[in-house]
Specification:
Length: 162
């Protein structure tokens, strides 16, 4: 079975070509030999090395996450959590305001938090992509456990005590 990398750029209205250019460069160099499928959102990028889709319906999107071996994604919480809940190894390359990829740098903060907790690997400087990709292959992420049940229990307790 072929190894699959699913790249998720989210639905942000600003392009994130910086990541796709870096991935294509590593593919051309032979550092990434795996099949790469991209959900590009509003990022317009043509490549003969990657299968690129603008937007995917939720079923197709979730199917790609389920069958992929690795996820490379922007720093969106939804993309990170979707991937962690399906026990994927995740490399996050956050969008950055200085490149006009987002309005602010909250994705850097999100990425830092998930990295510090041991759930993901991060690639803040795109020049480190090759090294981070190699590191991801051996990475043993901490098992993600949702705290939704705890939140629901706290809400139920609160409501019961009103």
């Amino acid at each position: 079975m072929d190894i699959l990398i699913f790249v998720i750029l989210g639905t942000q209205d600003k392009p994130f070509t910086r990541l796709l250019k870096a991935l294509e460069k590593e593919i051309k160099k032979g550092n990434i030999t795996e099949q790469v499928i991209v959900q590009a959102g509003s990022t317009i990028f043509k490549s003969k090395y990657m299968e690129i889709h603008d937007y995917l319906d939720m079923k197709t999107f979730n199917d790609y996450i389920k069958k992929c071996d690795y996820v490379i994604t922007h720093g969106g919480v939804g993309s990170i959590l979707d991937s962690l809940q399906k026990n994927k190894k995740v490399l996050v390359v956050p969008r950055q305001a200085k490149y006009d990829e987002h309005e602010n740098d909250h994705q850097l903060q999100i990425t830092e938090k998930f990295t510090d907790m041991g759930y993901i690997l991060s690639c803040i400087d795109i020049k480190d992509l090759k090294e981070k990709w190699e590191e991801l292959k051996e990475f043993k992420p901490k098992k993600y456990i949702s705290n939704n049940k705890k939140i629901i229990k706290n809400l139920e307790n609160y409501i019961d005590n009103i």
